[in-house]
Amino acid sequence: MTKTPETLNILNPDFRMPEHCGGDRWSILHGDSLQILRQFEPNSFDAIITDPPYASGGSNQTTKNRSTSEKYSSMSKEKALPDFDSDQMDQLSWMFWTAAWLQDARRIAKPGAPVCLFIDWRQLPAMTLALQWAGWTWRGVAVWDKVASRPQKGRFRQQSEYIVWGSNGKMPLERNVGCLPGVFRYPNPQNRIHVTEKPLQLMRDVVQICEPGGRILDPFAGAGTTVLAAVQEGYEAVGIEMSDAYFQRSTERLKTALESEVNQN
Ligand SMILES: C[S@@+](CC[C@H](N)C(=O)[O-])C[C@H]1O[C@@H](n2cnc3c(N)ncnc32)[C@H](O)[C@@H]1O
């Protein structure tokens, strides 16, 4: 039997399980994280690793209100990937929204569990505030160097995104995790299926912050990159994704990738 979060006893038994899909050591739930996170039992996760909507992409509300494909992709309209929600808030609303789900995420994380949050330069200060507001201990910022980026005359390139990280209280040095880098250098993936898809190898490196074999939660799963990376690195992973299109895309991707891995062995 496939072990879903339901059968792993980490979901409230009275909760009506939403649409979901899973396989050996992974599952993705289809729905709104702000509702679903509340349904997990305390101490369910060994790490929270996610790339939430940034609500960024412009210096004023009019530019931020554009669709995610307009803001984050240079593809033509015909080839554009599906848009996603929760990305048009102003900064204050986004900070409240982020603090709300981060508070719920902390309740279901084990003591000492690490949290890693992707973000861009514009929302970096707000993210560090939301993290602390939600009760997590902020421990640092790692850098994702995207290698290539648009040159800007007379300005620095916006070549990096960031990983704001911390822990649920004390993070003992005796954890069974080695020394991790502070800078990750990977170009954006080719042939993306999600408008803001992260490089798989980047996520395989980042999940190493979790103790071996632990259970990782990604509340904004997108194309399922974190979930796939986690399983490939020997962890168990649960993702949540609200968009119909990306729930379909992520689950198809995981089924194909992980089944073919099994077939190769
Ligand atoms: C930045 S993308 C994640 C991309 C992912 N890291 C990848 O590599 O494909 C954020 C995702 O969060 C989803 N999302 C937005 N609001 C959500 C919510 N309230 N609950 C669950 N998912 C949500 C969006 O549909 C989008 O796919």
From TrEMBL:
Region of interest (Disordered), residue spans: 51-72
GO BP of this protein: DNA restriction-modification system; methylation
Compositionally skewed regions (Polar residues) per UniProt: 57-72
InterPro entries: DNA_methylase_N4/N6 (IPR002941), DNA_methylase_N6_adenine_CS (IPR002052), RM_Methyltransferase (IPR001091), SAM-dependent_MTases_sf (IPR029063)
Domain DNA methylase N-4/N-6, chain residue ranges per copy: 46-249
Class of enzymatic activity (EC top level): transferase
One Gene Ontology MF term: DNA binding
Gene Ontology cellular-component annotations: cytoplasm
Keywords linked to the UniProt accession: Methyltransferase, Restriction system, Transferase
EC number: 2.1.1.-
Similarity field: Belongs to the N(4)/N(6)-methyltransferase family.
PANTHER family cross-referenced by the UniProt entry: RNA METHYLASE-RELATED, TRNA (GUANINE(10)-N2)-METHYLTRANSFERASE HOMOLOG
Listed name of the protein: Methyltransferase
